[in-house]
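Could you help me review a protein record that somebody else here produced? This is what I was given.
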Amino acid sequence: MRSVEYAPLAAAHDRSEFDCGSAEINLFLRHYARQQQEQGVSATTVAVEGKRILGYVTVCPCMLQGDTLSIKRLPRREVPALLLARMGVHADAGGTGIGRALVTRALSLAVTMRESVGCVGVVLDPKEGRTSYYQRFGFLPLGIGARFTACEPPMFMSIERIRQLLTPPSS
């Protein structure tokens, strides 16, 4: 059984050996995640075993056009959301629940953001072939491709759906 901890990315974490199988996702963690975190551009949470990174998720605030979302009574102007910008799980740690835990942390952060500064939900750009992974959580396609450039259509989950997911069923 792995002893995994979740923490903000720090200098002590060994990023050099991280390999999730995607050169782009590996490169971001190794060379840009900490720099962008220090600049206040984004925040990265890592799943670590000792100093070894088993997975990470990077988030940042963004704005979405309110009238493009299927949420009733939103203003037609831009509204705040949380962008799940990058996520990767080390190839050796696939299937261990680390990815699910990282997505859950991002969703929880969106609820906190909603309570403190406003947030209508979480948006992401799935990498090619990863749409079904995010659909399992309840993310749905979002038809606003102009602001996002991924191969797959952007996906969205409303804060109401997030709260349902994160609230345990009452007994």
About this structure: The chain has a mean pLDDT of 88. The two ends are 29 Å apart (CA to CA). The longest helix spans residues 98-116. The chain has four helices and seven strands.
